[in-house]
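About this split. The held-out portion is used to measure sequence recovery: a designer receives only the structure tokens and must propose an amino acid at every position. Recovery is the fraction of positions where the proposal matches the reference. Here is one held-out target exactly as it appears in the evaluation file.
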């Protein structure tokens, strides 16, 4: 079994290193990851300049691009054989609720799914103390299970693991709802030039069976995400627009 490992915290990140150590005990691992932190890069691609890479070892390559770049380069250009699964993480911090739209960690798993490869994004829910021992062990076990039983078509997993030495269990969840209180603060640099800094506070709506709820209860949250973003209920609601616009135009 070949695992492609990537992240958005950079190839030297502790979470990736710890996960690599755990995965190497059960399978072959090849790492293609950004050369520096690319958090909140979402599903961005580098199309305006060449992508440079560096061979760190025979099984590790760093890329001066995004997590999505790394997945495409690995699958389409670097690896000699197609990986059985793509694992993105372990992220230094949570990827819960609406945050998945911004996450480079989640985007890498999404890109793997677009390429037809089983994929999973893994994050450790912590702010200060990052002990990846339990999360790396759980992620390795999850990878084994996914490779054995597979995933539904066009579906990948977003996994958030609570901080702690012992995990209490898992919960299959849906995405919760983030409440963003963003603001753009205007500042002045040391040269007297103005600039903006985006900042804010985050809260969330508590709901049954959400990823937030699972983490609050000390459980691992596993949320299946789907590539189809279509709001099928909305199609039925606005279907009549077709006739309305035919009459008008």
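Reference sequence for scoring:
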């Amino acid at each position: 079994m070949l695992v492609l490992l990537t992240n958005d915290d950079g190839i030297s990140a502790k979470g990736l290193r710890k996960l690599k150590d755990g995965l190497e005990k059960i399978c072959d691992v090849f790492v293609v990851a950004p050369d520096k932190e690319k958090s909140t890069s979402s599903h961005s691609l580098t199309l305006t300049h060449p992508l440079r890479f560096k061979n760190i070892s025979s099984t590790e390559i760093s890329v001066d691009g995004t997590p999505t770049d790394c997945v495409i380069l690995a699958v389409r250009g670097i690896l000699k054989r197609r990986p059985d699964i793509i694992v993105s993480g372990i992220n230094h911090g949570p990827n819960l609720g609406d945050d998945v739209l911004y996450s480079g960690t989640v985007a890498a798993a999404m890109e793997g799914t677009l390429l037809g490869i089983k994929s999973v994004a893994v994050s450790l829910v912590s702010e200060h103390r990052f002990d990846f021992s339990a999360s790396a062990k759980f992620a390795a076990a999850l990878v084994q299970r996914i490779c054995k039983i597979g995933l539904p078509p066009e579906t990948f997993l977003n996994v958030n693991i609570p901080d702690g030495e012992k995990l209490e269990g898992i919960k299959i969840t849906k995405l919760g709802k983030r409440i963003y209180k963003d603001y753009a603060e205007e500042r002045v640099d040391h040269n007297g030039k103005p600039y903006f800094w985006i900042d804010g506070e985050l809260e969330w709506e508590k709901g049954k069976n959400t990823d937030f709820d699972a983490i609050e209860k000390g459980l691992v949250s596993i949320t299946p995400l789907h590539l189809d973003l279509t709001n099928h209920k909305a199609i039925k609601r606005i279907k009549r627009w077709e006739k309305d616009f035919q009459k008008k135009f």
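Annotator remark: The chain has seven helices and eleven strands.
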